[in-house]
Design a protein that fits this description.
This protein is mainly α. It is about 75% helix and about 0% strand. It folds into two domains: about 80 residues, Orthogonal Bundle (Rna Polymerase Sigma Factor, Chain: A), CATH 1.10.1740; about 60 residues, Winged helix-like DNA-binding domain superfamily/Winged helix DNA-binding domain (Arc Repressor Mutant, subunit A).
């Protein structure tokens, strides 16, 4: 048992930053991402024997994380618990370079996607999973992954299209 706990601790310590980045991309809030990761690593611990025997532990952990996110989206908790809508500005807007501004635009556009589309886009393009692997992680068909990907990318294109192109 001590060996399994040590293996679990080593894995979580090594992959914590990655799990937090994936969670942030899914939910667009660092505090909520921490909550998602905490729930996911707790479930991972409870199923560590199965997870450690998996061919791809990262894939197993990512699947747990995405399922925690999607399950939370179905509940009302995430809609109720919002201390404030925006971070209060204390000293005016930050000075952003073009790359930083584009990154913020992309994050805002990603946050505007419905949860399922956001999960598909993050898994396909951030985690670089195939259509088949994404379908397996989300527990849906490859056709659903393809249609959600197409809808998500179209929504991102629409949102991120420069104003000049819209005229």
């Amino acid at each position: 048992m001590a060996k399994a706990d040590d293996e679990y601790t080593a894995y979580v310590t090594a992959r914590m930053a990655w799990l937090q980045r994936v969670a942030y991309l899914l939910c667009q809030d660092w505090h909520r991402a921490d909550d998602l990761v905490q729930t996911a690593i707790t479930r991972l611990y409870l199923n560590w024997r199965r997870a450690s025997a998996a061919e791809n532990i990262d894939g197993y952990a990512r699947t747990v994380l995405v399922r925690v996110f999607l399950a939370e989206q179905r509940g009302a908790w995430w809609k109720r618990v919002r201390p404030f809508r925006e971070i209060p500005e204390e000293s005016g807007p930050p000075d952003l370079s073009a790359d930083q501004a584009a990154g913020l635009d992309l994050r805002a556009a990603l946050a505007a996607l419905p949860p399922r589309q956001r999960a598909v886009v993050v898994l396909r393009f951030y985690c670089d999973l195939s259509v088949e692997r994404t379908a397996a992680e989300l527990g849906c068909s490859t056709g659903t992954v393809k249609s959600q990907t197409a809808k998500g990318l179209e929504a991102l294109r629409r949102t991120l299209r420069p104003a000049e192109e819209m005229r």
